[in-house]
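To illustrate the input format used throughout this study, we show a single complete record. The first block contains the structure-token representation of the backbone; no residue identities are included at this stage. The design step must infer an amino acid for every position from geometry alone.
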């Protein structure tokens, strides 16, 4: 479960972007792994989700939300949970500061 203290609040404008999401009516099965899924099946599921994200008009807002709330599961904004964790790692932060 993610930390609800990081959620932006109940006001509609915080969530409005979700109404335009390409995944809006696709259901969670493409974006969240069943328990224990590994290997090629998991990779295929991730790639299918990323194809949806690639054409999504709110991809940036989705990814920003996932990073801000530290969403622990699923593909958000075109990145898997592992890819998002790598972005938030201390090593990545240090590299980003050096290149800025």
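Output of the design step:
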């Amino acid at each position: 479960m993610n930390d609800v203290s990081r959620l932006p609040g109940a006001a509609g404008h915080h969530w409005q972007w979700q109404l335009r999401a390409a995944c809006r009516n696709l259901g969670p099965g493409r974006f969240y792994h069943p328990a224990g899924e590994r290997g090629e099946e998991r990779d295929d599921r991730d790639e299918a989700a990323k194809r949806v994200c690639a054409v999504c008009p709110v991809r940036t807002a989705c990814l920003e939300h996932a990073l801000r709330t530290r969403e622990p599961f699923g593909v958000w904004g075109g990145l898997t949970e592992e890819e998002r964790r790598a972005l938030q790692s201390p090593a990545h932060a240090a590299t980003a500061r050096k290149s800025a």
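Structural context for interpreting the output: The chain has one domain: 8-99. The helical segments are 39-54, 59-69, 81-87, 90-99.
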